[in-house]
Specification:
With 321 residues, this protein is of the alpha/beta class. The protein has 14 helices and eight strands. α2 crosses α3, α8 runs parallel beside α9 and α10 packs antiparallel against α11. Bound molecules: coenzyme A and zinc ion (ZN).
């Protein structure tokens, strides 16, 4: 059995909260992030420095970033769409900026209100500025495995965008399945090609569970040698500018599966489950996590309807026919 070290990156307070109708109070965000900091994640995507008109749910990014208690060993990253966002992020002393653009032209225009080339030109300027600091640079390529408006995305096109950013000296790239269109064989082929061509890049896979394939896609990525995954507490998540987008792969379900298979995720599953249990109260609705409802595989139950003599109670079985 493998004992391979994997790196889990929590995105609920960014990818999750950006999509929530109810504004999560700044104090509550800080409290949750501080709790997550103790769960063993490699990285936490705290918030995004986007236009407050585009993403009102994260309009308190500065306050959150300034006031969380940062724990040694955890990388605190933030999503940044443009130069203005990068300046705001740098003023908060982030460890990493996560720049974003889409591989598909339509999604880039819907999400960022500019063409891909305009995005690239802006992000090139951002990279120029950030490289003068010690802050790391990751680039998230949205819709890398399918676009809800354009359909299939050619693998070659994804690799070309990766090349353009690798040439600018970024530290990592995240391949995002923004609306859960990826399937395992596609993921395996893309990950193998990306790893072979960009061995020096820190590569992250970012799956959404829109069509129930996120865990299957994770296994395909693992087999292709990927060791770094974004995941979202409770399975929250979704892009407000991608039709039909829903939650990310659920952190507790991902960690549960990986631990059973003998991987070392670094993440404390019990602590993650207790944090996830707080979400419905925070956001005002139930969360997609099945593990939160079902419990871990070996969280055993007492016998249902046991009678004093230890036999199952007949009544329970005789009713419902
Ligand atoms: N932070 C704060 N404000 C910003 C900003 C940033 N990073 N970028 C732009 N703005 C403000 C501008 O100052 C301007 O404000 P004003 O109307 O008060 O003058 C307004 O937003 C519009 O600016 P403009 O440059 O015309 O941008 P836009 O309206 O074309 O929006 C983006 C472009 C990228 C800023 C915006 O679409 C955005 O933030 N998108 C985020 C998408 C996202 O996070 N999606 C989910 C994750 S994938
Ligand atoms: Zn996402």
């Amino acid at each position: 059995m493998s004992n391979k070290r994997l790196y889990i990156q929590e995105v609920a307070t960014r990818d999750g909260f950006q999509n929530e109708a109810r504004f999560v109070d700044t104090e509550a965000k800080i409290e949750l992030i501080d709790r997550l900091s103790a769960c063993g994640y490699a990285k936490i995507e705290v918030t995004s420095f986007t236009s407050p008109k585009a993403i009102p749910a994260l309009r308190d990014a500065e306050a959150v970033m300034h006031r969380i208690a940062r724990r040694e060993g955890v990388v605190y990253t933030v999503l940044v769409p443009n130069l203005r966002g990068a300046e705001r992020a740098l003023s908060c002393g982030v460890d990493e900026v996560n720049l974003v653009m889409s591989v598909s032209e339509s999604h880039n225009r819907a999400n960022l209100r500019m063409s891909r080339e305009q995005s690239f030109a802006q992000l090139r300027d951002v990279i120029g500025v950030v490289k003068q600091t010690k802050v790391a640079i990751n680039v998230s390529l949205s819709t890398a495995m399918g676009c809800p408006m354009e359909g299939d995305i050619e693998q070659a096109e994804v690799l070309d965008w990766m090349q353009r950013f690798a040439d600018l000296g970024v530290h990592g790239v995240t391949l995002c399945d923004t609306t859960g269109m990826a399937y395992p064989s596609q993921v395996g082929a893309l990950c193998a090609a990306a790893r072979e061509r960009f061995a020096a890049l820190e590569l992250t896979l970012h799956f959404h569970n829109t069509r129930g394939m996120a865990l299957a896609n994770t296994l395909a990525a693992l087999q292709a040698g990927i060791d770094r995954f974004d995941a979202s507490l409770g399975g929250l998540g979704g892009c407000p500018y991608a039709p039909g987008a829903t939650g990310n792969v659920c952190t507790e379900e991902l960690v549960h599966m990986l631990e059973l298979d003998g991987y070392d995720t670094g993440v404390d599953l019990a602590a993650v489950l207790s944090a996830s249990a707080l979400l419905p109260q925070l956001i005002g609705h139930d969360v997609p996590s099945q593990l939160l409802k079902a419990g871990r595989r070996l969280d055993l139950h007492s016998m249902p309807c046991a009678t004093a003599d230890g036999l199952p109670e007949q009544r329970a079985f005789s009713q419902g026919a």
